Amino acid sequence: MTEIKHVRFPINIAEAQGAYSLELLIGSEQVPVKLMIDTGSSTIAFHANRYSVEQDQQSKTTQTAQCVTYGLGGWAGPVLTSSITYSNGTDQFVIHDAAFALIENEKGKNFLNLDGILGMAYHHLNKGYCLSNYFTAKADKDTQTYPWPFSNQIEQTSINTFKKFLLKYPEHDITPNFTAFAQQNVSLNQFALSIHRSIVYVPQQNMTLEQKEQESLNQGLFIIGDAEAEQDLYTGTPQVVKVVHDAYYNTNLLSVKVAGFDQFKAPPLDQQHVHNFFSNAIVDSGCSYLMLQRDIYQYVIDSFKSIDPHLLTYIDAFNKAHANQQAYYPKDLDLNQWPNLYFTFEGVEEDEVTLCCRPEHYWQLDAISPGQAFFTLLDQIPKWPDQSLIGLPIISSYFCIFDRSTGAEGVIKFAEKV
Fold it and tell me: What is the distance between the alpha carbons of residues 179 and 66, in angstroms, rounded to a whole number?
């Protein structure tokens, strides 16, 4: 075991436009795949067309299948094992016999322009299902889930129907990739994100992908190990938010405040969803927005209206353009007219932690193209529980450390960036 204290990996938002990607090398052939860094899931999965199982001398098939749904999207595929290599160009770390899924069937465009997903949450979200009983019943007990035998079945029904089919078989927890990395390579179970945007920054017309990647605002760092030792990246003492459940980096959002107004108490998670969603807020690096519980969102909108009713015309114009899949180019949007937003969370030892989201984070300018603006506050989507998703607009405001070494659930630390 090669044990490290902390190591930096470069990440970038340019290719996915609204998510940060890390390149990993898969198998004996070290096939590069660019994966979305997602603290809201635990699975590592990528599209099958980027990788050849037959050419990988280290690959092993299994009788396990995975199926993951994301609201309107989702995917299904076989679970395999092989080596996965993390490299930053100087240091290289190998996870042996690492588990991953190949995406064979997919509903929607789940990973933007990337090859797949690198889930950074805990094992609760990395469920597979062992189909040995299914294959035995078909008098084919040695069959593996690769080559994938379910494509026609899924195409004729749906991803959601296939997920219900899998629930009839024994659940098999799969060690998440980051957990395996920590077990094999690092002395401290931590990782951190140092990023600057939630939507890609494009200040000039006709920029190539390479030019976008070279923009400093589109670059970031993914730190594994003792992230607090990276003291050139932040200043002061980090604020510590309590993780109340080790599934989705669940937190307890206490209140939201628009500068100049009374704070608004955050509603608790509705009781019918407590069993599966656990708390009223999660910290999710795979989300480009701040999706606010509907009452919180209305409080924020009402506060904006009290400041100046004209502010709502910008939001309405953006929402209309976005709904029609059109870009929004405001000519006179002045961020000095917009207030700071403050989110207060339960801390450790009965402390409260307040994080600030400034206008330049909830309004992303020069986003995707020069002059285009994105409003990154999102109302609670239909059929979603009373839970807020604390995505990149707040994560990018701070040096954000996910410390899984503290207690059963861990904590999330937010420090002022240098």
Answer: 18
User: Do the domain assignments include residue 18?
Assistant: yes
Whether residue 180 is found in the same domain as residue 286: no
Residue 207 lies in a domain: no
Cα 44 to Cα 47, 99, 100: the distances in Å are: 11, 8, 5
Stretch (H or E) spanning 61: strand 60-70
Cα–Cα distance between 160 and 67 in angstroms, integer? 8
- 180 and 31 assigned to the same domain: yes
pTM, to two decimals = 0.92
- pLDDT on residue 349: 78
Q: How confident is the model at residue 187 (pLDDT cuts 50, 70, 90)?
A: low
pLDDT of residue 406: 80
Judged by DSSP in three states, 148 sits in: coil
Number of structural domains the chain divides into: 2
Pairing of strands 73-87, 21-26: antiparallel
Quick: pLDDT tens for 390-416: 999 999 999 999 998 887 788 999 999
Do 239 and 352 reside in the same domain of the chain? Answer: yes
For residues 169 and 277, state if they share a domain.
no
Q: Give the CA distances from residue 135 to residues 61, 76, 175, 295, 330, in Å, rounded to whole numbers and listed in that order.
A: 14, 18, 24, 49, 58
Pick from 98-112, 220-234, 364-378: least confident: 98-112
Structure tokens at 91: 């240091």
Q: 172 and 50 in one domain?
A: yes
